[in-house]
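Workshop exercise sheet. Pairs work together: one partner reads the sequence aloud, the other fills in the structure field after running the prediction. Swap roles for the next sheet.
Pair: D.N. / O.F.
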Amino acid sequence: MFLAWNEVKYNKLRFILIAGVLMLVSYLVFFLSGLANGLEQLNREAVDKWNADGIILTEEANINLPRSTMNIEDFNPEKVNDAAVLGQLNAIASVNDDLKSNVSIFGIRTDEFIMPEVTEGSPFSAEGEVIADDTLKEEGFRVGDELEISSSDAVLTITGFTDNARFSAAPVLYSSLETVQTVQYDDAAENNEGQINGIVIRDDNIDEVSLNGELQMVDTSTFIESLPGYTEQNLTLNFMIYFLFIISSVILAIFLYVLTIQKISMFGVMKAQGISSRYLANSVIAQTFLLAFAGVIIGFLLAVVTGYFLPPAVPVAFDYTVMLVYGMVLIAVSVLGAFFSVRTIVKIDPLLAIGG
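Structure field:
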């Protein structure tokens, strides 16, 4: 460590450039991890809030909530510990054409467990009233606004807001089942009374729940992974992060290898003076650890600071546990890349290196 630190102090600019490259790679990895986590939350916030074990959908819906249509009477809720009916449709909500947003409308019962807590205003109590995800506030929607809904004559009134309620990247409007049926069927709502899209279940033994042949029980993890684009999006960003690990390792290995080649004669002299290859190898590894550690710490701080200045429309959400793991992996792969230089040091012949 003594030799490694003194060499860093003696060649500041050279090692600052190497640490700078590692800092940029770390910054990109941390920022992408925040973006991946933010996009993930954007799709699943409302589902996570249910804290449910599974959801009952129709077999023919192919684990797609809007495509699933059943009747409340198709399942007896006494078969499980807790059940909550759910109607859902996607729409565009607007206020006098000034404000417009894609929304997901959830039809629920106020006495069941998926009823969200209201953070501002009051819960819905009558048909046509909704509580909205608070991201709509950032778009300018307010309590008391009357929402015109696309492809419907219904007008919905915001009575309150709740937090963490987005589904498939759209803010959720929570309302009664009757309101959702009115929006969905207009004048034919009475003929479709009791129609829902799914039944959310809390029960530790969902695999043992008996269903009729047209229904299927889907565990919550599978339901989330089947949301449109969710898995593809996560795989893409995660592959980018994994490739950055490899790239950072290769970049540092190349830098250290070039530095080692430039110092072959010096290493030859040190070996001729009796300094062992093991001591020199440990010095290179210690040097790599110091550079990687400094680059990762600075990259982490820059990513977090960047997150504070991004507009709310950018879905970045840092998971510090994941970032800690990624930081440790970055340092580990950087040290791994240093072993190419160690191999070169071990092979140095002192006589050949000093021209003897």
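Discussion prompt: The CA atoms of residues 98 and 140 lie 9 Å apart. What would you look at next?
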